[in-house]
Design a protein that fits this description.
27% helix; 30% strand; five-stranded mixed β-sheet; 142 residues; globular; single chain; 4 helices; alpha+beta
Length: 142
């Protein structure tokens, strides 16, 4: 991962997030959504940079419950196609897990599609425990 820098973005990085070129996120970054995400202390965005180019990202949300310690849900991990197979997704996921632990999260969890071989390989390599659960979505959530 020579030359790759991983940073946690904050509110001051709104311009950086909004300037991310196509090909990293599923859709174009929406400034209002980006502002809300970065301004909410329950959300975290890590980005990997190759010089000025954003080449990877991982985002998470702290889940709070009245009867349990906080946990982190990993929203998404992605690497720009031009930079895949270089360990960036691994480094981002590890950094997000460490960030969650430092914030006091006791558990970290995520879901992925059963046919997403690259994601399955990454999470297995990182020692994640596979658990079976069924997901449901409303209003085009999934």
């Amino acid at each position: 991962m020579e030359g790759i820098e991983i940073r946690v973005l904050g509110s001051a990085d709104l311009g950086t997030l909004c300037a991310v070129r196509e090909g990293l996120f599923d859709n174009a970054v929406a400034p209002a959504q980006a502002r809300a995400f970065l301004g909410d202390p329950g959300h975290v965005m890590l980005m990997a940079f190759d010089g000025p180019l954003a080449v990877g990202m991982a985002s998470g949300t702290v889940l709070l419950h009245p009867d349990k310690p906080p946990a982190m849900f990993v929203n998404e991990v992605e690497t720009r196609e031009s930079h895949q197979r270089r360990g960036i997704a691994t480094a981002l996921t590890q950094a997000l897990i460490e960030h969650a632990r430092k914030r006091g999260c006791i558990g970290v969890w995520l879901g992925t599609e059963p046919d997403n071989a690259p994601a399955l390989g990454l999470y297995r390599k990182l020692g994640g425990a596979e658990v079976a659960f069924v997901g449901f979505g409303w209003d085009d959530a999934l």
